Amino acid sequence: MGQDKRTLDFLGLFVRHQQEIYAYILTLVPHVNDADDLFQDGMTVMWRKFDQFKPGTNFAAWGIQIMRYQILEYRRTLARSKRVLIEDSLFEALLDYVPTLQDEMAVRIEALRKCQARLDDRARRILKMRYEHNSPVEEIASCLKVSRRHVYHLLGQINGVLLRCMRRTLAEGSRPI
Amino acid sequence: MSTPPFANMDELLQRLLDDQIEPDEMRRLGKAIREDPRVRDYYLDSLLVSAVIRRSSQVTGELSKSDLIRALSSGTGRGGSRRLGRRILSIAALLLLGALILASLHLLRQRAHGPAVGVLAGEYEAKWRGSHPRPGEPVCIGSYNLREGMAKMDLDPGTSLVLEAPCQIEFKGVGEVALRSGRLAAVVPTQAKGFRVRTHAAIITDLGTEFGVIARSDGSTETHVLKGSVIVALDPNRSGRTASLAVEEGQAAAVDAGGRTIRDGLTAQADLFVLQLPSIRQPPSRAGRLNIADIVGQGNGRGAGTLDRGIDVGTGRAFKGPAATIRLARRNEFRPTPEFPCIDGVFVPNGALGPVVISSTGLTFSECPRTMGSYYGGPVNSGKFFDIPSQRSYAARLDGVSFGTSAHPALNLHPNAGITFDLDQIRRENPDIRIDRFTAVCGVPKDLPQPQFSDADVWILLDGVVRLRLQCPVGRSVDERVDVSIPAQTRFLTLIATCSGRADYSWVLFGDPYLE
Lengths: 177, 516
Known about the structure:
Largest interface: A-B, 69 and 73 residues
Largest sheet of chain B: 13 strands, mixed
Largest sheet of chain A: none
Mean pLDDT of chain A: 85
Shape of chain A: globular
Oligomer: heterodimer
Strand content of chain A: under 5%
Number of helices of chain A: 8
Mean pLDDT of chain B: 83
Number of strands of chain A: 0
Radius of gyration of chain B: 27 Å
Number of helices of chain B: 10
Structural class of chain B: alpha+beta
């Protein structure tokens, strides 16, 4: 594989599947900053090992395998720290369960993308602050001049809207013509 | 499932994402996810939403600006991109790989990757979010997020900064920082004159000084000049207004959240800032010491107690704190605490109502001042206080360190309240530990939602004799190390917090309270 083509192929696949890969990390490591670190480090490993990827096979599944090892190593490293990690029994249960959802992940993500575009401006602004700027809830509360608890409520509401929309979109997509 | 299976699940998930969930909450959430498929599905779906938005709003969003990447991500070449020569395409791809990595480094993690502007000279109990230097390593242009403790940075050409958590700061270049939130103290030598601190609303320019800046979460800014003078100016980009003010030594100025006005004539408060890092505390090893906050949490002093558990001084019974209401005691009454074998009892101190009995043996606190007899529940194994007007809990910090954690336990003693420990019983239950002294850090946190309403006093008594009195007056931030030696025959250790008037925001806290 020529170096240029290798680069282009990797970029194309990575950009297309990054949300599936990141979602896998975040469900097992539900701390945004740690998940970002793992995602970035894992991306470097994927790039280094890209020669081992068989074209035509499932890139997300291949990437997730690499991330799995990164995550296990991360938990080993933090095992003795005072950080609040998800407990071993839950982690292992999720480690087994999450891959069973992988087949439908791309469709769910696509549905969520469409639903995200339908949100009103205020909801989008709140999501942008929370996820794009990674703003703490306290900061959002201060900007919106509401209590922290109300921000949790708003984020929960937007989450609910997106999940309902995702389900509706998925149901419409699977309805027989 | 699109609605949360239980009431505060959304809040727990958000705090989990921020790494702010408490261990017991994590255990409860984990149990629910394992045992209830509805909770599991909601957890997975909610995190999928977070993941999709986080990625779509960052890397993908940035890269989608490029037609080439759009072509790549769709997997098919478009007419336009076909027309690109192979060489240009290759260079573009390599540049984009660089952009991808840069986006990951700079946008996802907000890492600091610019040139070095100084060095991290030291830390105290520091915990950072994201990339950060270790002591002795360079501080670079970029953002840093100090979540816990303090950090000292020595910048070129000689400015020294002490950051106190929680603090978000961005180094913009030599001689300029943006304080996004939190508190810093700066010592600026003559050769670094002109050093600037930008906040949400203000620009503070040094004229050869020592000064402190607080960037509050509501966007307002306070500048306190400890030596020399500074210029405080409105940020015209913020409010469209231009105004500036010279603030001299001993004075302070405040800029409102909208960046529209500068309020001067305030008095500088040196105790709000730390210019030198404290000496490193002895790590809280459990061996050879007993945590008395844990005992208040119905534990054994070795971590078995329950966080946020306390003793109601009105009844002597256990309650879940921090208290959310104010009560009034109309007479002095010592309340035994049968649910807490190592505690003799509790009381509401008020010198105006006659002798204040502080033990089951009838010892009294003759120095007790007149108080209003109001109380907020009682002593609690917690670093949290409840702000009644905003109906919010606040986590207390002293020296930038959060208390009320397993690493740093806290005994919350909101006036007016007293508690007497039965050291004889504690010795019987812990024959392996020799009790020689009581140590703690004691004070009122700096970041109160409102100033204290009246002066507070903290009293430590051994067998009814006052061994230490710590004054916490209005307008001064007090944070003192306590070290009281305990003679071998002493039976009772009594901790009391009193307030001369209304006790609102007199949030007295004992951090790392150990018998050793």
